[in-house]
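**User:** Everyone, produce a chain:

**Assistant:**
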Amino acid sequence: HRDIKPANIMISKHGEVKLMDFGIARDDKLSDLTETGTGLGTPSYMSPEQILGDKLDFRSDIFSLGIVLYQMSTGQKPFVEDDARTVMQKIRLDRYQSPRKLNSKVPRSLEHIMARCMEKMPANRYPTTQALIDDLMDFLSSRVPINHNARVVMYLRELGVVSEEEAEEILAASTPNRTRRGGADRTTVKLVWAVNAVLFLAIVGAGGAIQAATGRFSGEEEIFAPESSTPSMPRRVGYVTFVVHPWAEVSIDGQHVLTTPSARRVPLTPGQHWIKYQNPYYPERNQEVVVEPNQTLPLEVDLTNAANDPAEVEADAGVVVP
C-alpha cells in the first residue's frame, strides 16, 4: 500500500474497516512504480527504508501500521519533528518514547507488538502479516467479550439470511445475562467461524431458535428474486458479482445486498432483476439485468464517469438490458 495512516483507514456505516487510497500502492506482478531514491507516502508514517528510497515490501506497511497503533493508544505520533531533527531523521535514527509513559493503561503485550512492528530493520519485524495477526488475536482474545450467539446472528445477517431488524430481535431475545470474556486462546478465536458453522447446522437440524424468532429461517442460501416471482426456492440459480468505482451501496429488486468493495457472489433467481448503485457523492445509477441459471454475471460500473452506461455490459451469464 505504501501510505498506511489514519486518514486512509475508514469505517463504513455497517462497521466494516476499509483501507483507502491505493494511488501509490505497488503490485508485485508489475514493475516498480517509483525509481530508486524516490519517496512516496506521508512522512510521519513512512518506514526507514521508504525514506531511503529502498525497495519496499509488506514489512514497510507493518512499520506504518505500528505507528498507527501507537497513535491510537497514546493520542500522539511516535516520531515528531523538533529543532534538532526532522521527522524522517527521527524515524531512521531515533528511538520513540515508550507508549506506556504516555498512557499507563497500554498493556505490555500491546507495547511489544508495536515495538516489533516499528523495528528499524525490516528483517527484525514480523516475518508475515499472519504472524502480526496472530499476536493481535492473542492480545484481543483475553480482553474482548466473546458472544458466540451474537457472532452467529451477525454472520447470518451478513449472508442475508436474516434482516437487520430480525437480527436485533433475535439478539434481544437470546442475549445471555453475562457475556463470557477472557480465557480464550488464539485457537479458540481463530475457530470462531468454524464454531459458527457448527452452530448454524445445529440450528437447522433442531428447527432452531432463529426459526422460532423469525418464522422464516431456511437452511438454504437466501436467493434474491423480484416480488412477482414464486416464493418457492428454485433448483438452479445464477450469480452476480460487482466491481464499482469508487464504491456503492448495492440494492437488488429494492433490497440492500452489499457495500462494495466486496468479493461476494450474490445468488439470484434466473430472469430479470433491477440493480441500484448509490453513493452520496455521485448520481444514482440503475441497471436492469437478465441472469441465466448456473452462470455468474460480472458487473462493473464507474460512477465517476457519467458517460459510462452499465447497460453496455454483456457476459455469458446474462445481459444488461438497455
Summary: Residues 27-39, 176-221, 228-234, 311-317 have pLDDT under 50 and may be disordered.
